[in-house]
Design a protein that fits this description.
Layout: H1 4-10, E1 16-25, E2 31-34, H2 36-46, E3 51-56, E4 62-68, H3 71-84, H4 111-116, E5 123-129, E6 132-133, E7 139-145, E8 151-160
Antiparallel strand pairs: 1-8, 2-7, 3-5, 3-8, 4-7, 5-6
Length: 161
């Protein structure tokens, strides 16, 4: 027996998906880049009334997080990341005399950024209701750079009805 939700999905629904890659350039080694407006624009462009918006970082030294855009808090969060995995600590990842995997020309010493990334997810999903992204009063969506400055991109997807 099918549930009510399964029956609804079996009928033509007008389900939509819109994907966008947004180019970013970080200016600092650690930086919180507010991408909320870009997410809201993708949702508007999609015409989706009810669904979800997803922001995803395809980088191993950058993530996506929802938090408050209060400058002192953002500085506190940077300090927390630095305490968790200091830029000045020793990382085997950065020892190119022993590392043999995933090497690039002009390889960065970025073991700290990979370790900091353990605290920050690769993506955030936000409900969309009546065409509006359902963030709380103080919530903003940030692309979190941990190994800048450098060019980056965030992948945005809006899906729903």
């Amino acid at each position: 027996m099918s549930s009510g939700n399964a029956l609804a999905l079996e009928r033509p629904t007008g389900f939509r998906v819109l994907n966008r890659k947004i180019a970013l350039v970080s200016d600092l080694p650690t930086q919180f880049i507010d991408v909320t407006d870009q997410i809201e624009a993708v949702v508007r462009e999609s015409g989706i009334e009810n669904g979800v918006a997803v922001a995803f970082s395809a980088h191993t030294t950058a993530g996506v997080a929802i938090n408050e855009a209060e400058p002192l808090l953002l500085e506190d969060m940077k300090r927390l990341l630095e305490r968790f995995a200091s830029r000045d600590a020793d990382y085997r990842h950065d020892d190119l005399t022993i590392r043999t995997v995933n090497l690039e020309p002009n390889e960065r010493a970025n073991g700290h950024a990979h370790c900091q990334r353990l605290l920050i997810g690769a993506s955030e999903s936000i409900p969309v209701v009546d065409g509006v992204v359902q963030l709380g009063r103080w919530q903003r969506v940030f692309f979190v750079e941990l190994d800048g400055p450098r060019p980056r991109e965030i992948r945005l997807q809006a899906l729903g009805l």
